[in-house]
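Example 9 (inverse folding). The structure is encoded as follows.
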């Protein structure tokens, strides 16, 4: 990804990323000064910096870690993190803690009300869930870029994309290996929008934060790298809207297939923020037109603007809170953590898509083409 070259133009400075995960330890060497604990909304602030498994901390480091003390250096080391810890089955130490810890729906709504431009989510669950979709609609109407890992069920029979990645207005990110080929474990289908590195990374793996573990794989890191990529672009072009940043990511993604026939494995291709940063005259297109509006069922910003000007009959927030008309197929409910190499328990509603970042550098995606089955979108 030529990170060193990109950092000459942008480090992500001025961009805040809300990381909805297992919490973020703000005291690791790489994250000191990077975590905005004072900007966490009170409604979701419970133990936001307690991380029992290291997953959320690693995602934050992969996005905005400084690399200090030999820690992970993120792709956007100038960006800042707003941590939001959500409940996961089996990870709460008491019933009281579980009661106080927010669920993903509350977390998304709260993140939408912060100054974060990007909301990064490395977890998934069966769905759709109308409450979560309403929260996502609300966040989209506020101009937030929502990015989520698609899941690690690629090798399982009946592979499905997890929610929120499958929700509209969310960029679903798949994982690739070092050659740019889709990772075998990465879930695939019509809800994959982009891809990014997701294999053979070190990262925190428990609550002691004594040392990184090696060779952790999954789509979590892919979502984190995509979030950091967006931060680099938005930092260089602070006046762009979420539609323009999304368009830049989609239009410059590396692919060997027609743009109008996205891959079911890699979507529109591999994120390449350097292409945008290297061109000072890059045209991001119209500010109020969602480049994925056909797939999303409409443009959240346009709908929000329309509702706010309709004789005060409804506010953008109220309009965005309309439940999805998609039939219920499950509930996000509580979520459960599971390593990418482990099966999730049968009674779990959701898992963390664990995958972690690279120490002091970012994996370079190979330039070769990818020959994969492709299909039109099915949103």
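The amino acid assigned to each position is listed next.
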């Amino acid at each position: 990804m030529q990170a060193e070259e990109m950092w000459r133009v942008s480090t992500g400075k001025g961009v805040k990323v809300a990381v909805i995960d297992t919490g973020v330890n703000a005291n690791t060497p790489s994250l000191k000064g990077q975590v905005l604990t004072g900007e966490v909304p009170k409604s979701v602030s419970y133990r936001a910096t307690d991380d029992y498994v290291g997953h959320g901390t690693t995602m934050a480091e992969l996005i905005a870690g400084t690399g200090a003390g030999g820690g992970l250096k993120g792709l956007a080391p100038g960006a800042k993190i707003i941590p939001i810890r959500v409940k996961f089955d089996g990870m709460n130490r008491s019933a009281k803690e579980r009661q106080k810890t927010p669920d993903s729906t509350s977390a998304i709504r709260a993140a939408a009300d912060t100054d974060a431009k990007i909301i990064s989510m490395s977890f998934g669950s069966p769905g759709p869930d109308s409450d979560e979709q309403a929260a996502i609609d609300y966040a989209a109407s506020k101009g937030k870029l929502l990015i989520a890992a698609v899941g690690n069920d690629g090798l399982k029979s009946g592979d499905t994309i997890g929610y929120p990645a499958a929700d509209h207005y969310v960029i679903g990110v798949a994982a690739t290996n070092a050659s740019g080929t889709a990772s075998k474990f990465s879930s695939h289908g019509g809800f994959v929008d982009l891809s990014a590195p997701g294999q053979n990374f070190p990262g925190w793996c428990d609550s002691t934060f004594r040392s990184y573990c090696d060779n952790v794989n999954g789509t979590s890191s892919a979502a984190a790298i995509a979030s950091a990529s967006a931060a680099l672009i938005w930092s260089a072009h602070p006046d762009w809207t979420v539609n323009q940043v999304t368009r830049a990511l989609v239009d410059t993604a590396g692919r060997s297939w027609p743009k109008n026939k996205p891959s079911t494995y890699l979507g529109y291709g591999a994120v390449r923020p350097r292409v945008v940063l290297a061109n000072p005259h890059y045209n991001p297109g119209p500010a109020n037109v969602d480049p994925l509006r056909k797939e999303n069922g409409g443009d959240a910003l346009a709908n929000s603007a329309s509702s706010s000007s309709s004789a005060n009959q409804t506010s953008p927030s109220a309009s965005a809170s309309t439940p999805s008309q998609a039939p219920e197929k499950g509930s996000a409910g509580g979520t459960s953590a599971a390593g990418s190499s482990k099966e999730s328990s049968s009674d779990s509603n959701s898992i963390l898509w664990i995958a972690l970042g690279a120490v002091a550098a970012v994996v370079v995606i190979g330039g070769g083409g990818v020959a994969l089955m492709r299909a039109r979108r099915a949103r």
